[in-house]
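chain below, 358 aa
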Amino acid sequence: MLANRTATPCSRTGAKVINIGPTPNPQPGGKFVFTASHPSTHRVTLLRNRLDVPRSHDGPGCFHGGPSSYLSEPFFIDIHFFASAAHGLCANRDVKLDMRIIAIANQKGGVGKTTSAMNLSACLARLGVKVLLIDLDPQANATSGLGMTDENAKSMYSALVGGEDPREAIVPTEVQGLSMIRSNQDLAGCEIELAQAGNHLVRLREVLQPIRDSGDFDYAILDCPPSLGVLMTSSLSAADELLVPIQCEYFGLEGLSKIVHVVQQIRECGANPGLLLEGIVMTMFDSRANLAQQVVGDVRNYFAEIVYQTVIPRTIRLGEAPSFGKPIIDYEPNGRGAQAYKALAEEFLARHAPKPSA
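prediction:
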């Protein structure tokens, strides 16, 4: 628990947090309280995360938060990122870019990241959106999951290291409107070779620029590897927005804190200061488990509108579909998994709809 923290300016919120300590009347499990030197500014920021308004025993500018067990130095920093991301996301919705690059990332494996990248891409394409799915994971699960395995196929390795035109690696999939740049084992060596280059953080952004300039696609979705290596950080540096899938379990909360810490570093070092948190998607939800309900509730309480309303259920069919090389909308179009990803795609597009002019 942090207590009596020295005043720290926050350039993203305009507030200074001058004290963090337990509340006079903590709730079960413990609470923490923020005290800001600029209450009005800090109040707006924290309310974006659904933190409670001051109670009668609180002093000016004090705000209740969640369980004290979640409060740590990384989380203390992260809450400002989420708040500023939500503000920036809303403020920039009316800015039209030729192609939005969406990184689907979580350094924790087994959270439904590749499943979400594949099925969100396929569902968007079925809605008439031109999508390019880029498999940046050397495991190539998105590639095999869409039935696109070819040992001789070009991957992003040839563009990142060999300097080739990335458009030559684009191939159509069986889903109309969905194209792909496949992955292969060469990408495993790409980590080492990129790390030796001085521009590894911005290299992927440079490589993707011809694709962005071509105007052939509305969205490029990056399926990032489950690690904190060079390919992950390069993806975050290249992306316009970040979509984080979180498994509905306790370890999912820990993974969220870690990836946001990396994003903070990417933003603050200048590699990609405009990176926005597009959203958080809760995956592998089991309605029979109390823990799953609690995790979803905790994430929504903290991060509010950043969390998608659509929750992806844990189903056997979602696990089976990749073995047949099909997205869930082709494998079981009327199942719970397919309906969930269709709803996610619709919610995604609604979030990205241009704001009506005043």
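The CA atoms of residues 171 and 265 lie 34 Å apart. The chain has two domains: 8-71, 97-352.
thats it, cya
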